[in-house]
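Title: [Solved] Guanylate kinase 3D structure

Original question kept below for reference.
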Amino acid sequence: MNDTEAGTGAFRVRPRLTVLSGPSGVGKSSVLAELRRQQPEIYFSVSATTRKPRPGEVDGVHYHFVAPEKFQRMIADGEFLEHAEFAGNCYGTPRTPVLQALAAGKPALLEIELQGARQVRIAMPEAQLVMLAPPSWDDLVVRLTGRGTEDPAVVERRLEIAREELAAEKEFDEVVVNGDVRAAAAHLLSLMVGPQSQEFDE
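Solution (posted by the thread starter after getting help):
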């Protein structure tokens, strides 16, 4: 076992990238915030985007904000693990910081949409894909329609996309059901470090 396999700090795991995906409204942000609380040593990937910062967003913390021309150069240079365009803006996952975290022995987590997860599967076949799912379809519908302040057509489109994403469950290695945020975060953490830590404790 070398130092990279052993990792650093509290981890005794073989570094691996975990990709978390799931439909809108399933609670990804809440689960990731709880995961940070439970294990702050995990590396959380920061995406690059061509959109303008929103009030309160910090460059390098929430996103890496880059000009469209630079983003296109990054694509041409193969700097992204995955990238996509959404609502007129481009988003992508820089490859180098993820690889550096893994080389340092830190489990890395990337939260992206289904299409991005599929790209990562091709770029890094060893990555672990995890779907965050609602307790039931009815529960997700309530989460997406509960506010009642959005255009019904927009809500229906979100539900349609959610159906497509949940139908892709078989493409994922694991499924975490978010019925309780703390429990879901603990389950995700165990998938990232539990089984592998046992491997190196033998």
